[in-house]
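Page 37, continued from 36.
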């Protein structure tokens, strides 16, 4: 089958050649994603062979191979040995994976990631307050209870803290938003693991989580966002200190 149905291969490779360049494998992935999310390529389309992509992008075949392997892991393309590489989904279906990839391969500044996390978590709390059902609120309060019970066991405390934020993200009901939160939190995990390092900090964090939970139970998005903003401010300060 043709590499890009309804569009000559030469036009596609020319479009790739005109895109800005950067570091090899990650930049190849970015440029391919730009093309895939443009909406002009149908799901199931077979991509040009590695050698043709390599020539169009002005990089070595190894960079193309690495980029395609990474995109396959993310579920964006399907590499079929002996057949070729195929685009898996439509532009809208590819968006969540694309967002995750962009965060993972971009330059990461800790302070900027913390600011991003603050904004995301505050919006999550706002949505959760309008969408959480009684069972979800019960789960939030259960997580807070486990946090309070484990202020003397920081490993258990961190686990309960993470569960609270996971439940809150689920309650928000926005998978793309949740995906962003999870990726940012993962990138900050090395700091987060050391953020609450004594009982005083743990007790303060419990109080902050209780305020968020209470606002969600009351169905008050403004109060939930404000409570989360307070928590994020102190959490960010602790993370930067750590």
């Amino acid at each position: 089958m043709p590499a890009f149905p309804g569009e000559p291969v030469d036009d596609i490779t020319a479009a790739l050649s005109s895109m800005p360049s950067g570091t090899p494998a990650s930049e190849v992935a970015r440029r391919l994603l730009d093309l895939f999310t443009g909406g002009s390529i149908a799901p199931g389309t077979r991509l040009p062979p590695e050698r043709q992509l390599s020539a169009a992008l002005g990089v070595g075949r190894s960079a193309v191979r690495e980029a395609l392997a990474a995109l396959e892991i993310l579920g964006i393309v399907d590499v079929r040995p002996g057949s070729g590489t195929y685009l898996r989904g439509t532009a809208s279906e590819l968006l969540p994976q694309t967002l995750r990839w962009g965060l993972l391969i971009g330059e990461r500044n800790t302070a900027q990631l913390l600011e991003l996390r603050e904004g995301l978590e505050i919006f999550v709390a706002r949505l959760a307050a309008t969408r959480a059902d009684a069972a979800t609120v019960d789960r939030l309060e259960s997580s807070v209870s486990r946090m309070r019970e484990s202020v003397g066991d920081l490993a258990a405390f961190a686990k309960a803290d993470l569960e609270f934020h996971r439940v809150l993200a689920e309650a928000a009901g926005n998978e793309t938003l949740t995906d962003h939160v999870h990726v940012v939190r993962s990138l900050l995990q090395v700091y987060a693991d050391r953020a609450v390092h004594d009982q005083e900090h743990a007790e303060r964090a419990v109080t902050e989580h209780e305020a968020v939970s209470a606002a969600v139970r009351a169905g008050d998005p403004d109060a939930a966002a404000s409570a989360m903003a307070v928590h994020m401010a102190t959490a960010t300060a602790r993370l930067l200190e750590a």
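Residues 110 and 188 are 7 Å apart (CA to CA). Flag for discussion at group meeting. Strands lie at 77-80, 84-87.
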